[in-house]
């Protein structure tokens, strides 16, 4: 069982992602913005983070950048779950340090599969 933080400002999307991960045997919690995500992650390192690109206060890409600057989080698996569809957006997220990129709308089973792949690699 992995401990996963989901940063998502759309409550329905956050609930779908959380429920899929819990059903797969993981512990998952949702925070509504990038600032809360950073605070929760720094307080207790999760096993994996899922970030939306477009969030209030701090964008998901900026959360990735901040985490990658810190030695304790340099290897933390991060999956971007976002409505941004362009290749340029994906490249920007990966350049910032995201390990994977999944576009919305998403299949909950695909999310679980990608999360478990990332967990195995790390």
TrEMBL record:
A Pfam family that the UniProt record links to this protein: Response_reg
InterPro entries given in the database record = Bact_response_regulator (IPR050595), CheY-like_superfamily (IPR011006), Sig_transdc_resp-reg_receiver (IPR001789)
Q: Which UniProt keywords apply?
A: Phosphoprotein
State the superkingdom: Bacteria
SUPFAM superfamilies tied to this protein: CheY-like
Q: Which GO terms describe its biological process?
A: phosphorelay signal transduction system
- Response regulatory domain residues are 3-119
Provide the positions where the record notes the PTM 4-aspartylphosphate. 52
**Keyword Phosphoprotein attributed:** yes
Protein name per the record = Response regulator receiver protein
Q: Which organism is it from?
A: Sphingomonas turrisvirgatae
């Amino acid at each position: 069982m992995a401990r996963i933080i989901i940063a998502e400002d759309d409550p329905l999307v956050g609930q779908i992602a959380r429920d899929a991960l819990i059903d797969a045997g993981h512990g998952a919690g949702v925070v509504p913005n990038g600032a809360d995500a950073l605070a929760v992650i720094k307080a207790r390192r999760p096993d994996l983070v899922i970030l939306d690109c477009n969030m209030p206060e701090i964008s998901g890409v900026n959360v990735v950048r901040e985490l990658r600057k810190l030695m304790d989080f340099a290897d933390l698996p991060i999956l971007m779950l976002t409505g941004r569809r362009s290749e340029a957006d994906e490249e920007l997220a990966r350049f910032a340090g995201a390990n994977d990129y999944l576009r919305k709308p998403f299949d909950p089973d695909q999310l679980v599969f990608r999360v478990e792949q990332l967990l195995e690699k790390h």
